[in-house]
Design brief:
Blueprint (H helix, E strand, L loop, with lengths): L2 H11 L1 E5 H7 L7 H13 L2 E4 L2 H4 L9 E6 L3 H10 L3 H13 L1 H16 L1
Antiparallel strand pairs: 1-3, 2-3
Helix pairs in contact: 5-6, 5-7, 6-7
Length: 120
Amino acid sequence: MEFDDIAAEVRTDGLVVVTLQDLRESLDYRKLGPRVLAEIATTLAGAGLGYFPRRTIDENDQPRQWEEVRIYAKNSAVGKIIDAVLEPGPANDTFLLEVSSQDDAKAAEILDQIRTLIES
């Protein structure tokens, strides 16, 4: 699978689960290592994509090809919510409260789903 295919799938589906092997192969690398992970992170950011769990790419001294990450478009509705949960702070707290006040039941459900994804 090419990187552009992964990016297109994210834009279509909103959230895509891929392995480190999928990402490595999409960028034509033969082996995983901290430098390849740094390149993956840079490429994802350059395409406007985010990922979690972040430690799988950002703090992984011994990456394994089977490890999974979730890729999302940072400028999408779900991406903004995921970033707000992953990057706590006053502005993101306000954003989450605004989202939740629009429809408390729906917002609570969405946040529960995001927490479940982040914790897995």
